[in-house]
Amino acid sequence: MRILLMACAVAAVCVSGCSRGAPDTADKAEAASSSGKAKAIELNEMDFKAQTAQGVALVDFWAPWCPPCRTQGPIVDRVAGEIGGKAKVAKLNVDDARETAQAFKVSGIPTLVLMKDGKEVKRFTGVTQADVLVKAIKELL
Known about the structure:
Layout: H1 2-9, H2 25-34, E1 41-43, H3 48-52, E2 56-62, H4 67-83, E3 88-93, H5 98-103, E4 111-116, E5 119-125, H6 130-140
Parallel strand pairs: 1-3, 2-3
Antiparallel strand pairs: 2-4, 4-5
Helix pairs in contact: 4-6
């Protein structure tokens, strides 16, 4: 985690607020659909493989103490809104899912991993703009 902390220490701007505790994936999806605005779903160690096994998925590896991650979060939510149900857009807190982060060799955050049928296809490190992410997702669909 020292490497992750160092990556965030070189951070740009701190966006106020960060969420603690991840709601259940189904609750998160329901809240997003009832608000009329899609948001990225929160994944954990238990549901990561099942949620990313089929189709296209973009996963944001992040932590609440990381300022660039807090900048990336709303961008990832915007991508979820633009993509709709065509692909999954998700977030995974590396503090709560260390094994998965290690399995994907995440050494700096935010790291965004684009997957197809459970396999990594492309990786973005650092704050990445929505248009870049949407384009990459659409290329896989």
